[in-house]
């Protein structure tokens, strides 16, 4: 038996458009939250969050939507009394404006401290919500805490971070290769456009 056609009045098209837009948004956010099917994604064995605290410069990224205009970014992490991590992000945009965002990171894997959920105090973060698996996975970390490779478990977003504004080419290539081995689309990486004297 064939279903009856849907009948609606003059206001139907707007309502259908709104429902389609909402459905598309839900599907997009759902894709961001899930773990990728390309195999298990491993993190580092252990992170000392007190050593991880401090300033990290973004060297390259697979960016989230709200980073689309950033050309030079850095993050400052701080230990909080309740065991969470304070997050302060700064981004110089392509127009020279400085955007800032405040957030809180919560450990979701207490065995390693390498999987965290970061939530920023903005409308996008509140809409997106937190993830049971975390959305900030530390995938590679220099023993001296000088460089880090951080990504989301769905392999859509990735950051190569350094304690210094510039990173030597050999170290950069090693981190890119590690990301490639983990299944990230490294051909799409965007490098920071930072003056050499930063």
Can you walk me through this structure?
This protein is 23% helix and 31% strand. The protein is built from four helices and nine strands, in the order H-H-E-E-E-E-E-H-E-E-E-H-E. The chain has helices at residues 12-33, 49-52, 123-128, 169-181, and strands spanning 54-62, 70-79, 85-93, 98-107, 115-120, 136-141, 147-151, 158-162, 190-191. Strand 4 (98-107) and strand 5 (115-120) form a beta hairpin. The protein starts with 11 loop residues before the first helix and ends in a 7-residue tail after the last strand.
In short:
Helix content is 23%, strand content 31%. It has helices spanning 12-33, 49-52, 123-128, 169-181, and strands at 54-62, 70-79, 85-93, 98-107, 115-120, 136-141, 147-151, 158-162, 190-191.
For the termini, the CA-CA separation is 69 Å
* Radius of gyration over C-alpha positions, nearest whole angstrom: 20 Å
Main beta-sheet annotation:
8 strands, antiparallel, barrel
- Strand neighbour order, sheet with most strands: 1-2-3-4-5-6-7-8
Helices and strands, in N-to-C order?
A: HHEEEEEHEEEHE
**How many beta-strand elements?**
9
Number of helices: 4
Residue share in helix:
10-25%
Low-confidence stretches: 1-37
Percent of residues in β-strands: 25-35%
Q: On the 0-100 scale, what is the average pLDDT?
A: 79
Quaternary class: single chain
């Amino acid at each position: 038996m064939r279903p009856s056609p849907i009948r609606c009045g003059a206001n139907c098209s707007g309502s259908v458009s709104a429902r389609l837009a909402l459905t598309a948004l839900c599907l997009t956010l759902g894709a961001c939250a899930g773990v990728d099917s390309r195999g298990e994604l491993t993190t580092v064995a252990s992170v000392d969050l007190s050593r991880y605290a401090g300033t990290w410069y973004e060297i390259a990224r697979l960016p989230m939507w709200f980073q689309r205009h950033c050309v030079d970014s850095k993050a400052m992490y701080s230990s909080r009394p309740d065991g969470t991590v304070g997050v302060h992000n700064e981004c110089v945009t392509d127009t020279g404006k400085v955007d800032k965002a405040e957030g809180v990171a919560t450990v979701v894997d207490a065995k390693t401290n390498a999987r965290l959920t970061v939530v920023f105090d903005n409308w996008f973060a509140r809409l997106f919500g937190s993830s049971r698996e975390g959305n900030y996975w530390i995938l590679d970390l220099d023993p001296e805490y000088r460089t880090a490779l951080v990504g989301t478990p769905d392999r859509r977003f990735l950051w190569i971070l350094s304690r210094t504004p510039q990173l030597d080419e050999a170290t950069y290539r090693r981190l890119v290769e590690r990301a490639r081995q983990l299944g990230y689309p490294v051909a799409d990486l965007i490098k920071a456009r930072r003056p050499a004297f930063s």
